[in-house]
Amino acid sequence: MSDEKRTQPHSEEAAAGVSRRQFLGMAAGAAGISVAPGVFLYGVAGAKPADQPVTDAVRWGLLVDTNQCQEDCDACVTACEEENGWSFEEGSTTDPQWIRKLNVKDPGTGFTVSMPMMCQHCEHPPCVDVCPTGASFRRVDGIVLVDKHICIGCRYCMMACPYKARSLVHRDLHDQKYPRGKGTVESCTMCVRKVDRGDGTTACAEACDRDGHKAILFGDLKDPDSEISQRLRRYGGTQIRADLRLNTGVRYQGI
């Protein structure tokens, strides 16, 4: 946890002592206790081992080419569900949804683009700014995460996110692939476990490549020689709600 940069609570009450929820979270992180039936938490989700510190020498990002994204394809959504163990029922307004497909139509011309929408992994994330416990935080390599040990489910981050990219877990969870918890907030982690393993890609990008569309590219935005940097330099890229000046880690082409 010491290798991760996060927002800390500023209130005198938070500074004066540790709440019961925080105590349970820290105890769970240290000892691997069960905080709910079937829910075991063994440390901050996505944290690297102590001998592999997160570094600000890189900034991980995604580039989405909407010209290659197919309207009838949801391979990225399915891959994300399978990789991270969440599920979304069609028509549900409460189920977690870490990534979703959008079809955006220009009312003037009728031109329509299809594109995935997920956490944009902002350099200046509003979710981190409003979190009262420090559960929402940004790693120095650009990945925005939620520490479920200290998330109290207040949903301030959900209201602050301009991309509607966060969900609250409403239901009891069973047979989890990775630690999750009812009453906590979730969003795209940019496949942080795959990143920390050195896989060099995300589940959504892998699935898109496998289907032959190659619409999603993962890479280091700070490395001028990386493929993602070269494509951005050659073809440019658009930030969703660039007017907010959040410097998103996800960029789009063709919109």
End-to-end gap: 38 Å
Instruction: Could you tell me the CATH topology label.
Output: Alpha-Beta Plaits
The number of helices is 8
Strand content: 15-25%
Mean of all residue-level pLDDT scores: 84
Would you give an account of this structure?
This protein has 255 residues and is of the alpha+beta class. It has one domain (12-46, 58-253): Alpha-Beta Plaits (2-Layer Sandwich), CATH 3.30.70. It is built from 8 helices and 11 strands. The protein has a 3-stranded mixed sheet with strand order 10-3-11. A two-stranded antiparallel ribbon has the order 1-2. A two-stranded antiparallel ribbon has the order 4-5. Helix 3 crosses helix 7 (203-210). It is globular and about 40 Å long. 35% of the residues are buried. The model is unreliable at 1-46 (pLDDT under 50).
Topology:
Elements lengths: L11 H5 L3 H12 L2 E3 L2 E2 L19 E6 L9 H10 L14 E7 L6 E7 L7 H5 L5 E3 L5 E3 L9 H5 L6 E2 L16 E2 L5 H6 L5 H8 L5 E5 L6 H9 L14 E4 L2
Parallel strand pairs: 3-11
Antiparallel strand pairs: 1-2, 3-10, 4-5, 6-7, 8-9
Keywords:
single chain; 255 residues; alpha+beta; Alpha-Beta Plaits; three-stranded mixed β-sheet; two-stranded antiparallel sheet; 24% helix; globular
Short description:
The protein is an alpha+beta fold.
